Amino acid sequence: MCTGCSSPARSRRTRITINATSRITDAPTIRSLKFALQDEFEDWRDGEMLLQSLIDTPEKVDRAHRRQAALEALVMASGGIAGPGSLGEERSEVKENGS
Description:
About 70% of the residues lie in helices and about 0% in strands. The chain has a domain of about 55 residues. The radius of gyration is 16 Å and the shape is elongated. By secondary structure, the chain is mostly helical.
């Protein structure tokens, strides 16, 4: 269960940014982004472990799923974690696919 929907999305955006940089001219930026990406992963993992330890009944599982769905709906309604067209797609692709 992904109970922390925004951290993976932020990590995905950071990875796309790293992939779009030049190793020759952007090496310091790449190193900094990789440190940030590692921190994001560790924070997400720790948070996920904490949540899993707290969600220990079927009722809590249902409540967590409902809350996650509500939060993901808010993120999507606002254009996603990084906004339309900012995850490597062209704006026209976003409109055509309805994303």
